[in-house]
């Protein structure tokens, strides 16, 4: 029988009073795509960080290929550099460096003698890679100027390009469009054929069924299912194993207040310089409207314009009710603009509404802040050891919930949420859907931008299809899932 390429034995890790891993065994076979699943905070990122040596564990043993290490104490990341690559959940690109520099700075293929880097070689290699991955950017573009999807693809490209036998992808598709996902999956499958193994972390169970062979499920730092063939499971079973209880899928409800004037009116909006078309759109109290469309359609920009965070190239946003409403924003790239990792939950959430938490002299009213932030953290189900825990230390899903809490800080009239449940587990997703429905039922206008048909169909009373900067279609009321999919794929 073939030997596993990765063997982790009895791994434990605690952070203060949090027991993130409690005696976990984990193995990966050569050429296997092994999905590591679990709810937010289950310990997935902690386990793979112990494997790659990014954050060593407290105890246990690890073998990768021919290299064995003890999982505690001294850094072993250097010893296994040639065995494993780890694309972390939080992006690691350097914003101030170019695409080519980010991709190749640590890669020996562009070294000349005496450690000098060949600039020309770096640029041409980068261009070749970008072509291969069908990414339309220049090698000399600064990483900081790229959108979240491109950044994520670059990181994955960089790791896959290192030619190591074991790859860890921690929520690789969080910022990817459906088209980008397909490119990624093609590469994963091609590498698998060459014997490369993957540890694949995702909250998108459909992806798991698409690419994975084997499933391991963690709950509260312990294994609940080890190495189950993916064919022996279904989505519901996995969800229940992750949550430790039955999860149910909710359905949309319509609370649109069709009689009152809209909260927000966009008229003659030109989304970008490349688009001639203009958009007219109204958002009513009580309604959940989804903006859907392919990459580059302009749906994100339209949402940012509605939220007042981007200036349109023409047209205007007004409110038939008089003064413009207060708008809360959940941005698409939470790592870049959603939170500040070194600050606590309290400061991050309060940053969404410093004005309303301050007294007449501009000082923050601490008691009010504590109360308000505490309430928002409960409303959004943030799980943290305290309101002072740094957001950078939270699991990815809990970071996203903090971003939600921040957007609600000023009790907005309208909330605009881009990819609202990115990185959020199946249980917490239902909680956020319930939250959005509840906000709508209380009269708020909700705008979501999503690439997920399920999400849209569970939430939206109205779906606006955006294409090339224009609204090309609309589904209202009792539309079917089939209609939605056809419209989103641009078939109908
Ligand atoms: N640096 C840290 N300091 C303190 N606690 C931490 C740190 N990193 C992780 N934790 C805690 O360890 C637990 C496991 O977190 P981990 O990030 O591994 O979860 P996860 O399964 O990856 O979740 P998600 O799907 O939300 O990303 C959580 O309770 C988290 O808050
Ligand atoms: Mg994680």
From TrEMBL:
Residues 6-245, 258-488 form the ABC transporter domain. Keywords: ATP-binding, Nucleotide-binding, Repeat, Sugar transport, Transport. Coiled coil: none annotated. InterPro entries: AAA+_ATPase, ABC_carbohydrate_import_ATPase, ABC_transporter-like_ATP-bd, ABC_transporter-like_CS, P-loop_NTPase. It holds the Pfam family ABC_tran. The keyword Repeat applies. GO terms for molecular function: ATP binding. PANTHER family: CARBOHYDRATE TRANSPORT ATP-BINDING PROTEIN MG119-RELATED (PTHR43790), GALACTOFURANOSE TRANSPORTER ATP-BINDING PROTEIN YTFR (PTHR43790:SF9). This is Sugar ABC transporter ATP-binding protein. The lineage of its organism: Bacteria, Pseudomonadati, Pseudomonadota, Alphaproteobacteria, Rhodobacterales.
